[in-house]
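Section: protein folds

Sequence with per-residue tokens
===
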Amino acid sequence: MLAVCTGRSERTWRLVAAGLLFASLGGVPVPTAVRAQAVDTEPITEQSPATLERRSERGPVSVRVTLEPAEPRIGDPLTLRLEVTAEAGVELLMPEFGQSLDRFAIRDFVPRETIDGDGRTLATQRYILNAPMSGPRYIPPLAIEFVDRRAGMRPAPEGEDAYEVLTERLDFEVRSVLPEEADDEVPEPPLGALAPLGAPGTGNLWYWLLILPVVLAAAIGGYWWLVSRTRVRRASAHERASARLKSLMARPRPEGAEAVGAFFVELSDLVRHYLEDRFGLHAPELTTEEFLDVAAGSPDLSQVHQGFLRDFLRRSDQVKFARYLPAADYIEEVLGTAGRFLEQTQETARSPVSAERGTR
């Protein structure tokens, strides 16, 4: 132990002596004391992402809406939280699921409502969203309604059913994952310019005269093969969807929120893949509102069919994200409607007018 301490002391004095000699030679003032021990440093902690916040208030109701993070990159989940506080005796009417949020993909939704010891109502709605693309984006104003049932207070404005509080719009920027200077970079060609071809000789001419019919025959054969394959694929879209629907209908009807949610996930997947195979609509890759916009411009879907899709897909979103539990007769109704939709759209060529007449 003494030898170790002696060795350390000797090395320390050597370092001090070397420092004094260097300072005297360089004209640097000699410090009055030299610390041999290391200085502890605290780790630098990264701050949490900034949060956008807006507050609104009307009478006995106060509203706070937040968005986090304030500067997301494309692909980052956005947490939107709506917090509403109402005095005792005030009835709150929170926004419906997905109200004004059609431009975002909704990944999760959690509503909650409690009453504190003073009788005040504390209601929250939390959304997990995804932005469809980078660039300027915004959360539109959200509408909260309430009825003032306190003694001596007017329940609602004259001629209206309830009071209304509107949140302020939340503007933010979704950044791209690419560096800003990436758009200005032009990739250089990896190879130089090709040398010019020489003039064809007589041998080359005979060669092309012989090979040209073979190339044309192969191209025509490949074209007809692709056309026939496409026809077979589109003709079998109805058969594949009908087989999946028949298997789904043969199962026992789901009971409970989890089983009903799984049932509607499978039925929604069936309808979306059928639309992709049958009409070339990339339904599985789009959100509900994006797909409905595409379907509205499709000449292959009648107004009746678009109405079925609109009601079915939005009901499915309510079951999957808002934990909405439909009645048992609605499950039977939607299975029957889905079967009729497959039958009415199975033909290769069908005008919107004839499709609409066929549903009457």
Remarks:
- The beta strands are 52-58, 61-68, 78-86, 90-93, 105-115, 121-130, 135-139, 143-148, 163-166, 170-174.
